[in-house]
Amino acid sequence: MVMDGAARFCRSAQAEPLAWHIPVEAIVKEEEAEHLRESLLPYVKRLWDEYLDPNAPSAIAHDVYVKLFERSRPRIGADFILFDEAQDADGLMLSVLRAQQAQVIYVGDPYQQIYEWRGAVNAMDHIRAPECALTESFRFGPAIAQLASRVLRLMDEDTPVRGQDHVESRILHDSTSGHDRFDAILCRKNATVLTHLAEGIGRGDRVAVRANVDELRAFADGAEQLMRGQRIGYPATLALFETWEEVQEYAESFAGRDLKPLVQLIDNEGVDYLRLILTRVSPEDEADYIVSTVHRAKGLEWDRVQLAGDFKFRNGDDGKLTMAPEEMRLLYVAMTRAKRLLDVSEIRRDLYTMFREAGV
């Protein structure tokens, strides 16, 4: 949490670390979260001081030297600046751009903003400028475009995305055969990536992974420590639990359902099996398919994509099935990675119930 707080500070426009830079898991009550942030803030400030000290042992990440770049008040010697992925900008980059004399062209899609959880902001909400809508995709055909447009309507966007009539694309609603028909399986969570990896290796598939493998290894280490009765600080997914039994209980709840397949895998096969399958990940150019988080798939495309079943639907205040705005954007990004075949069979029931109840 201290390192995450320092990283979020580095991506902000603030001159020094503040308590709100420190992320706390949503299951922690706000009053307790506020106390936790205030308690950890001195450690975040100390870590930042170490980053600035060339003789300190702390290694620095990309965020640190970009922050130092911003603090130097740079002047970019250009007449025009094209700023891409503007929907997932941060306070730091906005601070740099606003200080320039050049004309800045912001390019982005607010419906693909998926890094809000790490402090990203939609730069286009913070500027006044003429707008030009780019609504045509050259990636996929009409079938995928139509499904993605239904998600857009859920986000109050009336302008549909248009596909290419000459590109044949289709939606698969019932997948009963093996994963060899897909080039990529896209998941919300690292835990789901690991579950699909284990299933694939169990079948003898060659599977590549686009996810935080270090965090997956840390999950195995953390699970083992909790089984021994030892508290851990990383990964954050397990840091709030005191015992493995608490993790098992949480995985059975609605809030913890994303963890259930991974917890069951560890309970049935053991943490050593988890470590073993992580050593059997194939290079992408040798794999039968890739299993990726949606975040790691951003900007990529595959002919045949399957969506995992871990996208989070919930009941709204009116009792209708819906998704949180950030979840809906994540779903939209996942859908639009496919070029020719999009398999939604694992979320079909909830997806079409949501469409029907929303009238889109």
Helix and strand topology:
Layout: H1 2-10, H2 30-52, H3 62-71, E1 80-83, H4 91-98, E2 103-106, H5 142-154, E3 170-172, E4 184-187, H6 190-203, E5 207-210, H7 213-227, H8 236-239, H9 244-251, H10 260-269, H11 271-278, E6 289-293, H12 294-297, E7 302-307, E8 314-315, E9 321-322, H13 325-335, E10 338-343, H14 348-358
Parallel strand pairs: 1-2, 3-10, 4-6, 4-7, 5-6, 7-10
Antiparallel strand pairs: 8-9
Notes on the structure:
By secondary structure, this protein is an alpha/beta fold. It folds into four domains: 68 residues, no CATH class; 49 residues, no CATH class; 124 residues, Rossmann fold, CATH 3.40.50; 74 residues, no CATH class. The chain has 14 helices and ten strands. The strands form three sheets. The protein has a six-stranded parallel sheet, with helices on both faces. Helix 4 links the parallel strand 1 and strand 2. Helix 5 packs antiparallel against helix 13 and helix 9 crosses helix 10. The longest helix is centred in the N-terminal third of the chain and has 23 residues. It is globular and about 55 Å long. The mean pLDDT is 89.
